[in-house]
Amino acid sequence: xxxxxxxxxxxxxxxxxxxxxxxxxxxxxxxxxxxxxxxxxxxxxxxxxxxxxxxxxxxxxxxxxxxxxxxxxxxxxxxxxxxxxxxxxxxxxxxxxxxxxxxxxxxxxxxxxxxxxxxxxxxxxxxxxxxxxxxxxxxxxxxxxxxxxxxxxxxxxxxxxxxxxxxxxxxxxxxxxxxxxxxxxxxxxxxxxxxxxxxxxxxxxxxxxxxx
Length: 212
What we know:
The chain is mostly helical.
């Protein structure tokens, strides 16, 4: 439930000022160039940084929804995977926030995760790609997740009992979401698996911020 609430918060504030850029132009820029453009206009407050990534994520999600309108078994499968990808990203942000006791930095981090997730989903919807050379596997993500209990123990004295309980709950949610993702990806191509696991690996690395 926490992850779903966070996912909604990461989206852009509507109506959003895109400083004259159309949705097509925003997508063509990509998340980083769009972020740089937007914050150059709006400033680099926590709100502006969150909104920059949120706008890109919302526009990218609309693009994906148009592709999902072609209702096939393939798109239905990717839609399920996509939902779990977004959920995993927000789970990791919730976990990182809980371990560190919160903080405004998690707003932009969460919005960035939402935007990146939409691009990962789009990569699954595009035509087949050449076989990649650097395949990311589930085991790489699992190894990072296995470090969480030790991290929770190290940070125990920094958290209130309520924060400790929340972080343990968020960790369980994260493991469940990742297990779901692995099941959904079982019949997909190595390249598609790698795209998703690569995203998950980078989100799991967010916990480096929480390391004591």
